[in-house]
């Protein structure tokens, strides 16, 4: 079953949107198999966003993602990587479709509330950065 890494960023946590984000994924039918509230260290932030190193916004991105707690999660389901990105919406919240999380709650790219892996390769990498294998709880749904 496909897995993806989803993170409610510091702005989402500050705005009390953790429960709302979880509900959007749950009602779609995806299954959370790991989740934790944590503060991202400088080292972890640099590793997580290493593809953006050298870009003009990298400093702001580092400062922001380490500025307060995030809620890191792993979600599982059929095509969950693309499915999650549809629920989250476009990177720029002003361009994100209404009905998506960013489309409904965001205004600017650098405070876009939620992160979702963009490929199978990045989901494996990001899950491995934030969670130990034994923290992933796979289980069968009763219904
Ligand atoms: P995310 O999905 O977490 O992946 C990389 C992040 O970089 C992205 O969301 C944005 O929050 C941020 N980002 C991308 N482009 C810009 C930009 N031009 N200015 C500031 N932040 C950006």
From TrEMBL:
EC number: 2.7.4.6
Main location: cytoplasm
Phosphothreonine: residues bearing it: 91
GO biological process: CTP biosynthetic process; GTP biosynthetic process; UTP biosynthetic process
Molecular-function GO terms, alphabetical: ATP binding; metal ion binding; nucleoside diphosphate kinase activity
Keyword presence, Nucleotide-binding: yes
Amino-acid positions noted as binding ATP in the UniProt annotation, renumbered to this chain: 9, 57, 85, 91, 102, 112
Pfam assignment, any one: NDK
Reaction(s) the record says it catalyses: a 2'-deoxyribonucleoside 5'-diphosphate + ATP = a 2'-deoxyribonucleoside 5'-triphosphate + ADP; a ribonucleoside 5'-diphosphate + ATP = a ribonucleoside 5'-triphosphate + ADP; dZDP + ATP = dZTP + ADP
InterPro entries: NDK-like_dom, NDK-like_dom_sf, Nucleoside_diP_kinase, Nucleoside_diP_kinase_AS
Cofactor(s) essential for the protein: Mg(2+)
Active-site residues, record numbering mapped to chain: 115 (pros-phosphohistidine intermediate)
Keywords (A to Z) from UniProt: ATP-binding, Cytoplasm, Kinase, Magnesium, Metal-binding, Nucleotide metabolism, Nucleotide-binding, Phosphoprotein, Transferase
Location of this chain's protein in the cell: Cytoplasm
GO cellular component: cytoplasm
Residue intervals of the Nucleoside diphosphate kinase-like domain: 1-138
Quaternary assembly: Homotetramer.
Function in brief: Major role in the synthesis of nucleoside triphosphates other than ATP. The ATP gamma phosphate is transferred to the NDP beta phosphate via a ping-pong mechanism, using a phosphorylated active-site intermediate. (Microbial infection) Catalyzes the phosphorylation of dZDP to dZTP, when the bacterium is infected by a phage that produces the substrate for the synthesis of dZTP (2- amino-2'-deoxyadenosine 5'-triphosphate), which is then used by the phage as a DNA polymerase substrate.
Alphabetical list of HAMAP family matching this protein: NDP_kinase
Protein name: Nucleoside diphosphate kinase
Source organism: Aureibacillus halotolerans
């Amino acid at each position: 079953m496909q897995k993806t890494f989803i993170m409610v960023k510091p702005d989402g946590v500050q705005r009390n949107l953790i429960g709302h984000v979880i509900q959007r994924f749950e009602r779609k039918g995806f299954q959370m198999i790991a989740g934790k509230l944590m503060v991202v260290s400088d080292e972890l932030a640099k590793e997580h966003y290493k593809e953006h190193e050298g870009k003009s916004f990298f400093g702001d991105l580092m400062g922001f993602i380490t500025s307060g707690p995030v809620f890191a999660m792993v979600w599982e389901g059929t095509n969950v990587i693309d499915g999650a990105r549809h629920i989250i919406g476009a990177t720029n919240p002003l361009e994100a479709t209404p009905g998506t999380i960013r489309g409904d709650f965001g205004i600017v790219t650098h405070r876009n509330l939620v992160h979702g892996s963009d490929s199978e390769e990045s989901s494996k990498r990001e899950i491995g950065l934030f969670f130990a294998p034994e923290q992933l709880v796979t289980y069968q749904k009763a219904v």
